[in-house]
Design a protein that fits this description.
The protein is of the alpha/beta class. Helix content is 38%, strand content 13%. The chain has 18 helices and eleven strands. It has helices at 3-9, 32-42, 72-75, 91-101, 115-118, 123-130, 155-161, 182-205, 215-221, 226-233, 267-277, 291-296, 298-309, 314-323, 334-338, 341-345, 382-388, 393-401, and strands at residues 23-26, 46-51, 81-85, 106-109, 135-140, 210-214, 250-255, 258-263, 328-330, 349-352, 355-358. Strand 10 and strand 11 (355-358) form a beta hairpin. Helix 2 (32-42) crosses helix 8. Its EC number is 2.8.3.19. It is an enzyme of class 2 (transferase). One of its GO terms (molecular function) is transferase activity.
Length: 413
């Protein structure tokens, strides 16, 4: 029996979904790569997380930690996977990886460029020749070449370098990091998109290809509409707090019991808002009758709006405005966000005895996907995965004796 058919018949608890039957070797760590592969797992792919002796460092990025000692950060992006530990710096580890690749459809890695080549697994010269159907996804900070090529990438550093911090914050705070690792997140989705496109191409051509996603490109792509505004006007975008550079009122405002966000994008919505909160005639004022005018006079507009909202309750007001077609929502804390009834309706909180996490953001009607396996412990499935690939017990024992299959993380202490 070939390794490929062994993999296919050994699927014990494999989830169903659009990607059922696709096997992914996930050599990535931290956020962008693991998030990408978690989404593949959510939709049915068999994802094997391959960790180095030191393990994925997000296992240590806490507190909080779960009962197994893994940080909540790790559990957020590693569900649905099986985990093995393999020392790829050792020749025997490299041989084992090549054996695993015989049954793989996708490989995802986020090493510093050149690492895989140093281990004898360069895509262009080795893997593409040996595994022509393989889709190889490299996630890096800046790509392999160019003035910044080969440098490591970190979310907040890219936010700073690519202008995102310069438009986030207000004059009092100065340039500020976006509160979630947004560059890493979107890079994960960019990598996912590339992999799915490559799978579509392979379905037609039978050929794999290299997919590249960089934090640098992703960070720049987030500058909508600020980059377009600058290209047209040559005016440098600045700090606007929660406001929008092209729309008003599109900002955070104070009510009597907390803040709301108004997302008014057209004159019709503005008129309805004014009528509802008692700002009669304001929409006919020449300073506020069009979006362009409202932008020019946004400070005066804020004074009028917050005066009208001061006696009002934010939750009731937001419900009423949304029913009128005026976009508005309370500025919630994270716990308040998950206390909304719509979270349960949309199944966006997964709660099981073995796992709590976010629901799936992408829904398909015929193959909806699921949050299947709980995030794996370090090296939890090493023997299982190797047996499926055709390794016998003696070979596995030899690899373990040689230090190629660590059972516990090497903390370096």
């Amino acid at each position: 029996m070939s390794h490929r058919s062994t993999y296919q018949t050994a699927a014990t608890a494999a989830p169903s979904g659009t990607l059922a039957g696709i096997r992914v070797l996930d050599l990535s760590r931290v956020l962008a790569g693991p998030l990408c592969t978690q989404m593949l797992a959510d939709h049915g792919a068999d994802v094997i997380k391959v960790e180095a002796p030191a393990g994925d460092e997000t296992r240590t990025l806490g507190p909080p930690f779960n009962a197994d000692g893994d940080a909540a950060y790790f559990t957020a992006v590693n569900r649905g996977k099986r985990a093995i530990a393999l020392d790829l710096s050792a020749p025997a580890g490299q041989d084992a990886m090549l054996r695993l690749l015989e049954g793989a459809d996708v490989l995802v890695e986020n090493f510093v460029p050149g690492t895989m080549a140093r281990w004898g697994m360069d895509y262009e010269t080795v893997l593409s020749q040996r595994f022509p159907r393989l889709i190889y996804c490299a996630i890096t900070g800046f790509g392999a070449d160019g003035p910044l090529g080969g440098l490591p990438g970190y979310d907040a550093v890219l936010q700073a370098m690519c202008g995102l911090m310069s438009i986030n914050g207000d004059p009092a705070s100065g340039p500020t990091r976006v509160g979630v690792p947004i560059v890493d997140h979107l890079t994960g989705y960019t990598a996912l998109t590339g992999i799915l496109l490559a799978l579509c191409h392979r379905e037609r051509s039978g050929q794999g290809q290299r997919v590249e996603a960089t934090l640098f490109d992703t960070a720049l792509s987030l500058l909508v509409p600020h980059a377009a505004n600058w290209m047209e006007s040559e005016s440098t975008p600045g700090l606007l707090g929660s406001a929008h550079p092209n729309i008003a009122p599109y900002d955070k405002f104070a009510c009597g019991d907390g803040a709301i966000f108004l997302g008014i994008v057209n004159d019709r919505q503005f008129r309805r808002f004014c009528e509802h909160v008692g700002l009669d005639g304001l929409s006919d004022d020449e300073r506020f009758c069009t979006n362009s005018q409202r932008l020019r006079h946004r400070d005066a507009l804020r004074v009028r709006i917050e005066s009208a909202l001061a006696p009002l309750s934010r939750n009731a007001l937001c419900r009423e405005l949304m029913q009128l077609g005026v976009p508005a929502g309370p500025v919630n804390t994270v716990p308040q966000a998950f206390q909304q009834a719509h979270v349960d309706h949309r199944a966006m909180l997964v709660g099981r005895d073995d796992y709590r996490g976010l629901g799936l953001p992408t829904r398909l009607s015929r193959t909806p996907g699921e949050a299947s396996r709980a995030p794996p412990a370090y090296a939890q499935h090493t023997d299982e995965v190797l047996r499926e690939a055709g390794f016998d017990e003696e070979h596995i024992a030899d690899l373990r004796a040689g230090g190629v299959l660590p059972a516990r993380r090497d903390t370096g202490r």
